[in-house]
């Protein structure tokens, strides 16, 4: 892949083939590289067009969001750095190389650093405040101006149906090895009824839709929050899911694919720090129902990603990149364990949202 990038992709961006190209980050969908040459650097991605079937819509959405944030940044109203699209030599935001993929470049921020596990409450509060700041800055961007790049992305009933379909097919005979987790996932119907009651009352918002801790760049020099990356799934949605993905990825002391299940639990001080940070930016923006929905969003996101990993395991790992056998099953077990901890600690956690 790296040779192909040097020879076929970089020249299209006017970059010399002698540039240094190295894999970057831990994304599960796209292939991401850091490209460095004597005069500059950028991040290059090959978009996964099985997942993002409308890559033009994706780059267009990301550009609209980046423009909006950059204008606020220049007006002194947005304090984080903004990752910008880098056009190719023809001025295009993305390069369609047919069979060889769909490529795009974005700016690289010097001194940036990403993490997989939150170290302490101060780090959680800073990152949650930054995600809140991001959403506040986007609260005056008309959500209907963004394309729905993945329809029904955060839609638990649809994700449960996909799991049921995968179970019915059991195309690789993997069901017997994960029946207990399937039964567990399908026993959470109560959450679906709660969701259907509340969701209809929520206003549409421009959401990030993937507020994982590793989509927050920290400044290596002082570990302050620097920028929010991965604008690929920015589209209309509900803020409870952005809150939920922070809870999902900040509160566990273990990484998303850790198999050390006994150590997985919601760290209450981190949960409290997320609430403080997020609400310090969005407290005035959220409607009463939205604020009430945050606890629901946390539970739905944890359960839903467990369901998505389990579905992909049954389907033969066709969606999320895996690095070893049963990787998606391990991720699912991890996320269901975290979800159980959320439920068990519900009474004390909910209090932080009051
Ligand atoms: C995927 O590729 P990445 O890591 O940004 C996924 C998210 C999941 C996440 C789980 C388009 O995000 O929805 O929450 O993995 N993105 C897509 O880690 O499906
Ligand atoms: Mg993403």
From TrEMBL:
* Lineage: superkingdom: Bacteria
The GO terms describing molecular function are:
transferase activity
What keywords sit in the KW lines? Transferase
Domain Aminoglycoside phosphotransferase, residue spans: 21-255
Kindly name one Pfam family recorded for this protein.
APH
What name is this protein filed under?
A: Phosphotransferase
Species this chain originates from: Shewanella insulae
């Amino acid at each position: 892949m790296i040779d192909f990038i040097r020879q076929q992709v970089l020249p299209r961006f006017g970059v010399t083939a002698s540039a240094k190209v190295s894999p970057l980050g831990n994304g599960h969908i796209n292939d991401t590289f850091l490209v460095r040459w004597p005069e500059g650097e950028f991040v290059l991605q090959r978009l996964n067009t099985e997942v993002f079937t409308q890559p033009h819509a994706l780059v267009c959405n990301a550009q609209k969001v980046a423009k909006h944030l950059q204008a606020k940044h220049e007006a002194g109203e947005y304090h984080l750095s903004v990752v910008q699209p880098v056009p190719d030599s023809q001025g295009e935001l993305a390069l369609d190389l047919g069979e060889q993929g769909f490529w795009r470049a974005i700016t690289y921020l010097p001194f940036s650093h990403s993490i997989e596990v939150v170290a302490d409450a101060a780090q959680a509060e800073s990152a949650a405040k930054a995600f809140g700041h991001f959403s506040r800055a986007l609260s005056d961007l008309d959500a209907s101006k963004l394309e729905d790049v993945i329809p029904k992305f955060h839609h638990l009933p649809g994700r449960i149906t996909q799991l049921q379909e995968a179970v019915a097919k059991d195309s690789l005979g993997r069901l017997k090895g994960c029946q207990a987790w399937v039964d567990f996932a399908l026993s959470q119907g109560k959450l679906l009824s709660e969701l259907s009651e509340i969701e209809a009352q929520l206003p549409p918002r421009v959401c990030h839709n993937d507020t994982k801790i590793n989509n927050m760049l920290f400044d290596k020099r002082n570990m302050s929050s620097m920028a929010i990356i991965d604008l690929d799934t920015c589209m209309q949605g509900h803020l409870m899911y952005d809150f939920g993905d922070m809870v999902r990825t900040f509160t566990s002391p273990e990484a998303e694919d850790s198999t050390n299940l006994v150590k997985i639990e919601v760290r209450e001080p981190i949960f409290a720090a997320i609430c403080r940070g997020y609400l310090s930016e969005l407290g005035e923006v959220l409607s009463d129902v939205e604020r009430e929905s945050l606890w629901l969003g946390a539970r739905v996101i944890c359960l839903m990603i467990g369901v998505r990993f389990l579905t992909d395991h049954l389907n033969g790992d066709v969606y999320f990149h895996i690095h070893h056998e049963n990787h998606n099953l391990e991720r699912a077990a991890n996320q269901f364990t975290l979800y159980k901890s959320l439920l068990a600690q519900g009474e004390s956690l909910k209090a932080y949202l009051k």
